[in-house]
Amino acid sequence: MTKKVIVSKTFLFIFILSFIVMFKTLFGEENTLIGVTVITATLMFLERDLTSTLLSNFLKILSINVILGSLAFFASQNIWIGLICNFLSLFMVGYFFNYELRKPMYVPFGLQYLFMVSTPINLEQLPMRFMSLVFGAAFVILVQIILNKNKLQKLGEKNISLICDELKYKIKLLKENKNTNTCDKKIEELSKELKRIIYDNRKEEFYVTEKGINLLNILFSIERISLILDRYSLNNLGLIESTLDNLIENKNKILDTINNELNDIKNLLKDDTDLNLLQKLEDIKKKKDLDDSYLYEVYNLEENIYENIKQYKVNKIKTDTNKKLEIPQSFKSISIHKRNFNTESLRFSYALKIGLLTAIAGFIMDYFKLQDGRWIMFTVFSLTQTYSENCLTKSEQRVEATLIGSALFFVLFTIIKDESIRGLILILAGYMNSYLTNYKYLIICVTVSSLGSAAIASSPDILVLHRVMYIIIGAIISLLANRYILPYDAKKGYKDLINIYKNTTKEIVKEIAYYARIRIIIIV
After folding, report:
1. Which domain holds residue 516?
2. Same domain (yes/no): 158, 307
3. How do residues 124-135 score in pLDDT, each as one tens digit?
């Protein structure tokens, strides 16, 4: 772990603690946990660029916050109303913030609702709760403006330049007859990141911007150059048209040539100098001694890259033009939601399970008036998975980690009586969370933090007993539901993915055919 990573994670931890303290000061102790979900949502949404439609995204987040806040308030008024409100809230969160092809975003909104339900308020406190929810939506968007504004331009140019650097390093490895797998993985990661940014930057959740189109064309051409370079590996030398005697020398000469062309691409991308590269390429391709077919293809790809870089620089300083074509009906949001609102879809399957299980867990907690019964709800929310296979693995890890964390907490808080040292233990456990990616170890730290925070009002032995018992109850409920309520496994997900691909391809072909007919009519 590098010093830079430690410094960045420490700074982030301090910022999160400071934000939660500030949030508690502004909106009261009963809304403190909302501050936790606000910072969680802010960090999760930073992975996506919401700045292309700021007002629309602000209104969406604000609306869901207000709706969840209202339903949480009504849920606390009556056990039977709560049953309905809990189901509706988590069904809505599970359905609208879950995706087939992207990382789901339901965690902060689901946790926010559960925190509000587990911290009920009276009518006089309701305005302050709504103010905290409005502030939360505004804060998410404000951070987007600060950190993600012009993200497409900044990271787009940066990633293409980094990919060129990786290709130059790949050329070095090829000349030394070394393995290029690590280099290829890095190129793939940078390419995927740029594609996600271009996707997030769409207009009306459909139209790729003109700058995005230019960057995509550049990226596809550079990816093709990477594939061409694979032809010059030691295992593929026989594919190159050359005599055996000068094979190695010819390979290195070609690789040096491609390396120089990559330098030209980087230079053109980072400044406005027009090096007449297109004319240079045309002259090179006319030479009779250019007998390497792959090198010839590289020059063709470079022409495409240069043209798109020049167009990209033009589009960079102008506002994107209005849409030219109507969004196909099947690609509109309303059609997508209609298509997914059935018992066979991943979204509906997960939404129904999470809504139903949370409602049942909440009902059990209220009906039996269980102290700390909210842990059943949190466990159900955590362990209910989109894919059934994941639930069993995660449940085993959750129970095991809870037992270990509870034992660790009991030993520490039985031996240590000093409140300041206990506080340091909780801070340390929270700080360690930022470094952990393994679910088991993460839950151990979370268990210590949760029990330690609750130990202020209860004795450690009772807390440990409740924690373990409620986690096991929640795990059993989740396992049964994932097995018997609309089970959705990876095999079914794979079939659905193939169907999405086929249907999308059909729609694209249909739109291309329609556009071609229109062009013919105009020409005639």
Report:
1. 495-523
2. yes
3. 999 999 999 999
